[in-house]
Design goal:
By secondary structure, the chain is α/β, with parallel strands linked by helices. Helix content is 65%, strand content 13%. It has two domains: 5-107, 3-Layer(aba) Sandwich (Rossmann fold); 132-202. It contains six helices and five strands, in the order βαβαβαβαβαα. α2 (36-45) runs parallel beside α3 and α5 packs antiparallel against α6.
Length: 203
Amino acid sequence: MFDLEVLVVDDDPTSRQIVKRCLEDAQYKVTTASSGDEAIELLSEKVYDVVITDLEMPGSASGIGVLEYAKEQCDSTEVIIMTAYGSVKSAVDAIKKGASDYLIKPLDLTDILFRVQKISSLKCVLKDSLDLRMAIETTEQSTSETIQNLEMIVADFCETCCQMKKILGNESLGKEQRIKKASELLNHLAEKYAEMAHGLVDG
């Protein structure tokens, strides 16, 4: 289960506490606000994973105001609207503005948990997907760097072989001198390989 932080907004203290207790019993972290204005103040200070807000509340900020502000602060915040049966059309309008779901009062606690657990599962999938994508990108970068290193080694080896061939075929030098110079080139290449291999192991 994704460790959600939930903000519950309702001017009805009984309804607010029922939802809070229900979610806390399910091990979610819950903060409450008694008005839309208080909710907006809390949202200005912190990002919540889920906001569950009543639609109709006194004050300058209604549930729609909370919805709009929450999505403005963080588009990944999921907002669930609570409303009376007669305001279902308003709840549907809220979904068009970005709310993920709505609940009809009187509230069904099982329904509340189902909606929040659905969000939790979705966030888990998104997080796992992001972690997998980052792991793939890291692997691709590492593979690309390894291929580049191997290409450099092959090019260096070919160049060294060409130089050794020229030295060994240079009859103006004595036999021992040719062997010594060719050996020096080979030893230099071996040392370079050893340093690169050590770096790959450490990495």
